[in-house]
């Protein structure tokens, strides 16, 4: 029996036009966007569909991304494709929890709006930085940066791709050290802060106050959390995990390996881009990987996975 995982991308995958074809061709997708437009304090539809600078601003990106991903998911679910487990990278975890039944779509969208604002304000612009490290293991990266203050690992994406985070000067120093330690490439990321670092602890504390007002429901299916890569079947500690997630490393590779161990053999990335699909293909060649980024993708996935 095939097991299906729905996966949701994080910040960096956003692009102008995401979800527009869903909005124009499907009433359920349109309803998700229209509800988000009603709930949010900015024009999320224009941010997703029209050329603008806000789409790459953390304060707006997160709500826009989750809105688009959930609109796409509505269509996929209605077409008969159901997940056995969900997971998301960083902000994508909110879509994963909503689809798993742990919170309403509306709460997921409005909460990540606040999350984006708090993360954007946590460290002054230009003071923080992140960089992708290619060609070293997570352990090698940890050892290389261990003696450098103000730098930690932010993401364990897949074999040979680790992301570091911290204060800009410290990250610049770490980039040189990592190259000396054998990294094939170390690439600075176009982000506005040192996400998933201890410097975001304050943002997590503010987020906690927002989450206190969010209704967390019993899960219909499990989701896998970024914080420890474990299956979550009881949503009672979901708020605590989401608070920790802001300042903790994202353990995506470990999450995928746990899903593989559970028998997941079909992964469907829902949202703009193919980042997570690329990671999975570096983790294993033995599974089916699909993307739902355009409306036409739904029919292709349905044809493949619905028996």
Brief rundown of the structure:
This protein is α/β, with parallel strands linked by helices. The chain is built from 13 helices and 10 strands.
Verbal overview:
This protein is of the alpha/beta class and 307 residues long. The protein has 2 domains: 3-123 and 198-305, Malonyl-Coenzyme A Acyl Carrier Protein, domain 2 (3-Layer(aba) Sandwich), CATH 3.40.366.10; 128-188, Malonyl-CoA ACP transacylase, ACP-binding (Alpha-Beta Plaits, 2-Layer Sandwich), CATH 3.30.70.250. The protein is 46% helix and 17% strand. The protein has helices spanning 20-25, 27-39, 44-49, 58-78, 92-99, 105-122, 138-145, 168-180, 201-211, 238-245, 252-261, 275-283, 295-305, and strands at 3-8, 85-88, 128-134, 151-158, 161-167, 185-188, 223-224, 231-232, 264-270, 288-292. The strands form 2 sheets. Strands 8-7-2-1-9-10 form a 6-stranded mixed sheet, sandwiched between helices. Strand 7 (223-224) and strand 8 form a beta hairpin. The protein is globular, with a radius of gyration of 18 Å. The mean pLDDT is 96.
Biggest beta sheet summary: 6 strands, mixed
CATH class annotation of the largest domain: Alpha Beta
Uncertain regions spanning at least 5 consecutive residues: none
β content, as a range?
15-25%
| CATH H-level superfamily of the largest domain | Malonyl-Coenzyme A Acyl Carrier Protein, domain 2
H/E series, N to C?
A: EHHHHEHHEHEEHEHEEHHEHEH
Neighbour order of strands in the largest sheet: 8-7-2-1-9-10
Shape: globular
CATH architecture of the largest domain: 3-Layer(aba) Sandwich
CATH topology assignment of the largest domain: Malonyl-Coenzyme A Acyl Carrier Protein, domain 2
Radius of gyration: 18 Å
Distance from first to last alpha carbon: 11 Å
Global mean pLDDT: 96
Could you state the oligomeric state of the chains shown? single chain
Helix content: 40-55%
Kindly name the structural category. alpha/beta
């Amino acid at each position: 029996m095939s097991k299906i995982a729905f996966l949701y991308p994080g910040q960096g995958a956003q692009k102008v036009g995401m979800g527009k074809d869903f909005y124009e061709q499907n009433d359920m997708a349109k309803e998700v966007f229209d509800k988000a437009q009603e709930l949010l304090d900015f024009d999320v539809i224009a941010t997703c569909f029209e050329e603008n600078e806000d789409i790459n601003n953390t304060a707006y990106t997160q709500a826009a991304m989750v809105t688009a991903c959930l609109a796409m998911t509505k269509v996929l679910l209605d077409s008969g494709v159901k997940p056995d487990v969900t997971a998301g990278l960083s902000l994508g975890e909110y879509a994963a929890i909503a689809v798993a039944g742990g919170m309403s779509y509306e709460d997921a969208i409005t909460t990540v709006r606040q999350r984006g604002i708090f993360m954007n304000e946590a460290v002054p612009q230009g003071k923080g930085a992140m960089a992708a490290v290619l060609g070293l293991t997570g352990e090698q990266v940890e050892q290389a940066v261990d003696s450098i203050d103000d730098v930690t690992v932010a993401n364990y994406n897949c074999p040979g791709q680790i992301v570091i985070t911290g204060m800009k000067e410290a990250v610049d120093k770490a980039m040189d050290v990592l190259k000396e330690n054998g990294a094939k490439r170390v690439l600075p990321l176009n982000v506005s802060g040192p996400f998933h670092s201890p410097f975001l602890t304050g943002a997590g504390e503010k987020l906690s106050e927002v989450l206190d007002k969010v209704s967390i429901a019993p899960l219909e299916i499990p989701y896998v959390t970024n914080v420890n890569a474990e299956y979550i079947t009881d949503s009672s500690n979901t708020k605590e995990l989401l608070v920790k997630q802001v300042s903790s490393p994202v353990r995506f590779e470990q999450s995928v390996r746990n899903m593989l161990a559970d028998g997941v053999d079909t992964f469907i990335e829902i949202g703009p881009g193919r980042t997570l699909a690329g990671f999975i293909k570096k983790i294993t060649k033995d599974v089916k990987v699909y993307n739902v980024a355009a409306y036409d993708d739904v029919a292709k996935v349905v044809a493949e996975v619905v028996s």
